[in-house]
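chain below, 315 aa
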Amino acid sequence: MPEVLEAPLVVEFPFTRSLGPVQSAFLTGLRDRVVLGVRTGDGRVLVPPVEYDPVTAEEIGDGGLVEVAPTGTVTTWAWNHAPRRGQPLSTPFAWALVRLDGADTALLHALDAPGPDAVHTGMRVRVRWAEERSGAITDIACFEPYEGEPAEPTGHSGEFADPVTGIVAPARLDYTYSPGRAQSAYLHALAGRRMVGERCPSCRKVYVPPRGACPTCGVATAEQVEVGPRGTVTTFCIVNIKAKNLDIEVPYVYAHIALDGADLALHGRIAGIPYDQVRMGLRVEAVWTEGARHPDHYRPSGEPDADYETYKELL
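prediction:
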């Protein structure tokens, strides 16, 4: 039996956005331990605040800001028995929708409780503020059970001397990838420094990497075809931003490469040539490093450039 392949993968990047006056006031308020909402045309108070009335679509603006209390009521909840990396609490907690006193909508956040039996719809809670606050939703560390009287708003106007104007939120996705029959065969071949695709029995196109089915005809593919290891650059991109955990100096080039015998271009890094000399039609060959299961990069093969007519259908 062939080895069953799987790989833990991580997609991670910083998401940067600027803030309009409403979101700026909301996040700046959290930094200063104030919770702000907005009042709509029909008199409802929305927390978190929005910039446009969801009923009339009219702009609300920071003139509609109103402070609400840091205490509230759980409207619904779900228990999280196994917190994941980056979640608000490292111990089991409840995700809860909390309608703060003075608000007409609920805010989603973590609720710190000793167990699911301690949580119920209608329970009273209050904000637990983070010790260090910077103007982000995480300035609310979580909610916690509360049995006291409803807190009174301070009467804040929503105006701040040093407002938060932008945020950088890290986005991360952890998952495990397990290829199917076709891609497993492709990866096993790469480990042996061979490149293989699969031919569609109907249109006769050779797909690399193979997908197990023809995306055009919708029929299964099984006939294995060896391709490459040389190919032609069809299109390319010069990268000027250094990627995390990738030990490559910028600028560098990634390209779509049509391997000889393939009817689909694949993605690969180009090296062994100055970045500003990479071009469409450049003939390249795969380069494996010692012990690698796949090509590290592609380099010029020394052949004359391919004629445009030979690869124009693969752009």
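The helical segments are 21-31, 181-191. The radius of gyration is 28 Å.
thats it, cya
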